[in-house]
Amino acid sequence: MKQTRFPAGWNEARVREVLEHYEGQTEDEAVAEDEAAFRSPGQTVMVVPNRLVPEITRLIERRRPARATRSYRSDKASQPAAHTPRRG
Description:
- By secondary structure, the chain is an all-alpha fold.
- The chain has a domain at 12-65.
- 47% of the residues lie in helices and 0% in strands.
- The chain contains four helices and no strands.
- The chain has helices spanning 12-23, 27-38, 53-63, 72-77.
- The N and C termini lie far apart (50 Å).
């Protein structure tokens, strides 16, 4: 049987906690969380080609302080979302 491997700083309990957080949200709570992320001071949200996401992620990780704490949102945001952009 293959044992599940987690990224550094992650374990099964943390995965379950994050899943419970997002699965327990109402649609309104999820929208409010997303909107709050767009208003976070000191951060910018931008659209980039999917092929550049790994390179951008590596750049951010190199510049992030070693002991930076991460919220649910930052963990989720580090994974590219597959969605269709809204238009007009």
